[in-house]
Amino acid sequence: MVSTADRWPLVGREEELHLINATITGTGGQGGIVIAGPAGVGKSRLAREAISHVRPGRWIPRWARATASARVLPLGAFAEWVTDTPSDPLLVVRGVIDNLITAPNAAKIAVGVDDAHLLDDQSAFVVLQLAQRRLAPVVVTVRTGEPAPDAVTALWKDEHLQRVELQPLSEDETTQVVTAVLGGRLETAAAHRLWSLTRGNTLYLRHLLEQELASGRLTRNRAIWEWTGNPTISAGLADLISTQIGTLPADVGAVVDALAAAEPLTEQMLVDLTSADAVQAAHSAGLITIDGSVQHAARLAHPMYGEARRAETTPLRLRRLRGHIATALASAPDSGPRDLVRRAVLTLESNLTPDPTLLTNAAVAAWSSLDLDLAERLAHAAIAGGAGYEATFLRGGALGALGRIDEAVDLLAQLTVEDLTDDQVLDVAALRASNFVILNRSEEVGLVLLEASAATPTNLHGSLIACRALVHAFEGRPRDAVVAAQRALQSPNLTNVCELLALASLVVALGDLGKADQIAPIADRGYGAAHSALLAFYRVILCDCHTRSLRLAGYVSEANAVATQTFDAVADVPGWVHVMSDLLMGQAALAAGRLNEARRHLEQTLSPAPKFLGYGGVAWLCALVQVRAMSGDHAAAVTILQHLDSLSRMGFAYLTPEYHATRAWVAAAGGALTQAIEHAHQGAEHARAHHQYAQEVMCLHTATRLGDTTTAHRLRELAEQVDGPRAPAAARHATALAAADPDGLLDASHQFENMGDPLAAMDAAAHAATTHRHHGHNGSALTAAARAQHLADTCGGASTPALREAQQPSPLTARQREIITLAAQGLTNKQIAERMTLSVRTIEGHLHRAALKTGVSSRDDLGTLVTGHQRPHDHGHQLE
After folding, report:
1. For the CA atoms of 696, 701, 702, 707, what is the dihedral angle to 10 degrees?
2. In the prediction, which pLDDT does 424 show?
3. Which range has the top average pLDDT, 80-94, 259-273, 611-625?
């Protein structure tokens, strides 16, 4: 899978390529260039790529590569061009130069010299002469920090050549390279991890990719590459790093090993662990860096140095070294939760006896920083060491958040009410109830709350009412949820966790009821309550509830702002929280019509999704299916929808209308508009029956966008009672479509555009184009179609039924186009009739009339005419 280095894409070097080209061809004012940089950043590749692409045929490259072994030979790098050995050394040099710059057919010569810092003196003199006398343009590479012959350093010091410092690839550039090499996208956390290890060094990157692919730790899961486990340093990479590090004295090696085990360390602690002289020697050798902060934090100069040293060290020695450092950290002044977590992790991986109090406190610190995987690991170790309620409760919360619901249920069941305080009973009940809601086990929810009610005083039962509000909200009963949540929030002695559950439930329920304008102060109260360390996790949950309600109402830019704020806040947090933030950004981008951005965020959550059943999985899949369907990718949408269907056993019935709308978009992408509109109406009927009026608007407008003309009356009613700009715009769209009013449709299009929903604006404009055309207003139709296409382009290439009809004017009716589209997919007349609940004779009649209108005589030709895709058959099938 990983190709040779010369076949890797050259990313992030456009500016350097342009500069080298200018110096070679003479437009840059100098006769060449010196490319400097650390080992492995791609100096040689850049030089060769640049020279090989300078007017091929008119320029001939001459390549010389210096090596340490050839350095002992005079003119060793240019031995290929030494033809005789006259007694005068200057004549030898002149002969080499003449041979280098002589070219057939009046071609020009460009000379490349790789690793010029390793040149012998005579070879270096040849290069200097070429540059000084402008005999030929010269492209030279040197390794930064390495001693070089005087003639080589004179190239830039005396300004014969310009020197350019080549930097390692940025994180984005590294991801681009890996994506191109793998032929697919790497999951976000894995891409960040890969860059963190290699720091953009292309040589390290290539070796590491080859090793991880060969080991099976780097694998493809659908469209995304996943990287699991810890990397192993291959023999080739280890040799490469060892060569760069060199043979280290024992005391300097101890400095590197200490940082390999636990970087960063303060300079003083590193000195205490080793010695001042050893630290100074390691720093002078470029093996470590020491920053200018108050603590003077010391780190390895490159992460791969640590990987290589750990690979060479025995596990027993590593455990002892970590124990030594953990003990030193325990004696150091308290510097906050980060060092607490580091000390706990080092203790776990050392020869020290685990301290359950330390592990519990560290688990709390990890939870507070939203590192849920680490919090679960530390809490688990604390429990194994004898820790009690706090560690168990925290681990139960982490397991639930990580999607390991069954494990969380089993663990929390071990906590008995007799051993807990009243507040602990209530918080455990809330956590257990939440897990059972996710698992769609409503009976267990009732039993948990009943048990907690019997074990606690009546004046504390407001917390249990908050739990019931959560159940009502997520089971799709918003009226009951509002009543329960408001009652809970008015109750005394509400626990902090249950207060947040009540607030989140209220935000969800008000959003469903169409009362989004009441949400802002409730959300603000929740964000304020979630600022405490142990409750920070709930901030992400509240943000999800908040942005969903804003999107439903049509407050698209506000939803995007809230999602972005959370995304930025957790950008460096690994695991589940990062996945959820990608989901939030993907949903916000979809609502704003940014399909490519939405797909990028949502596909990053692809690989972890099986862990996050329940809301995370269902909401993510609904959004991703819609992105694919609205992009016209029916096959991918169907595949993902099958995964979504597999989660039907989960709870969260309040998402049912969105699920139906998602199925509508998939059917529409496949051309089955009758079925698509039925799905949208099923969602609307469910929403209306459960008072989810904002979702009813969304479903009815989905049907409208798919061409349904029956939704106007109900949408006008909803526009009078549902907050936000979406309902009035949807009512305007539906009314104008039913009345065949193109001006009204364009007005609706502008309303949606002003709202921040260009996808809906596109469909309304497309309907206006089709309506104008039916009225014979061809000029106006072209103008409206151009607007629809412009909006589609801003959305990243959207493709919906309305847009496709506007783009492909034809004499066919909408029903005829639908039947032909289904026939083009290979469905028989009987299958089409069953899907559309029509008779086979009716289907045959529509196909026959379509053939007469278009002058086409076969199903395949009709399909090509309507869909633009040719079926792979030698002969067209007859209409029957």
Report:
1. 140
2. 93
3. 259-273
Q: Which of 146, 224, 222, 125 is nearest to 182 (CA)?
A: 224
One-letter identity of residue 857: S
Using the CB atoms, write b or e for 137-148: b if 16+ within 10 Å: bbbbbbbeeeeb
Q: Which architecture does CATH list for 813-880?
A: Orthogonal Bundle (1.10)
User: Three-state SS for 602?
Assistant: helix
Q: Sheet holding 138-143: strands in order across?
A: 59-65, 108-114, 138-143, 32-37, 162-165
Q: Distance (Å, rounded) from C-alpha 21 to C-alpha 19?
A: 5
| Alpha carbons 187 and 852: distance in angstroms, whole number | 52
Distance, in Å, from the CA atom of 20 to the CA atom of 137, rounded to the nearest integer, reads 10
- The distance from CA 576 to its chain's CA centroid, rounded to whole angstroms, is 13
Please give the structure tokens belonging to residue 625: 């299916």
Residue written as token pair 């930097």: 167
Say which CATH class 416-553 falls into.
mainly alpha
The first and second tokens of residue 466, run together, are: 């908050």
For the ranges 51-55, 458-462, 626-630, the lowest mean pLDDT is seen at 51-55
Phi, then psi, of 355 in degrees rounded to 5? -105, 110
Contacts 24+ apart (CB under 8 A), 831-840: 835/672, 835/674, 835/675, 836/672, 836/674, 836/675, 837/674
Which amino acid is present at 494? L
Q: Which of 151-165, 573-587, 696-710 has the lowest mean pLDDT?
A: 573-587
| End-to-end CA, the chain | 47
Eight-state DSSP code of residue 795? T
3-state secondary structure 168-206: CCCHHHHHHHHHHHHCCEECHHHHHHHHHHHCCCHHHHH
DSSP-derived 3-state class of residue 56: strand
Q: Is the peptide bond before 264 cis (omega within 30 degrees of 0)?
A: yes
The tokens of 721 are what?
A: 């009672």
Q: If you ran DSSP here, which 8-state letter would residue 32 be given? A: E
What would the two tokens of residue 585 be? 């950004």
Q: Which residues contact 358 (CB under 8 A, 6 or more apart)?
A: 340, 343, 344, 347
Q: Could you tell me which residues come within 8 angstroms of residue 847 by beta carbon, excluding any fewer than 6 positions away?
A: 816, 819, 820, 823, 829, 859, 862, 879
- Domain ranges across the chain: 5-165, 171-230, 239-381, 416-553, 813-880
| Residues 424, 432: Cα–Cα separation, whole Å | 12
Q: What kind and span of H or E run contains 162?
A: strand 162-165
- Does pLDDT of 574 surpass 70? no
Structural element, H or E, at residue 717: helix 712-719
DSSP H helical ranges for 490-610: 496-513, 519-529, 536-553, 556-569, 576-591, 595-604
**Quick check: 81 and 100 in contact, CB under 8 A?**
yes
| Unique residue bearing structure tokens 């009927």 | 685
Q: Say if 5-165 and 813-880 have the same CATH topology.
A: no
Euclidean distance between CA atoms 124 and 130, whole angstroms: 10
Judge whether residue 243 has pLDDT over 90.
Answer: no
Task: Give CA separation, 273 vs 53, 257, 265, 321, in Å.
Answer: 53, 11, 10, 10
Q: Cα 301–19–32 angle (5° rounding)?
A: 90
Beta pairing class for 185-186 and 108-114: unpaired
CATH homologous superfamily for the domain 5-165 = P-loop containing nucleotide triphosphate hydrolases (3.40.50.300)
Torsion, CA 433, CA 436, CA 440, CA 443, rounded to 10: -70
Query: Residue 819 — very low, low, confident or very high, per pLDDT cuts 50/70/90?
Result: confident
Mean pLDDT of the region 133-157: 91
Query: Which pLDDT band holds residue 651 (cuts at 50, 70, 90)?
Result: low
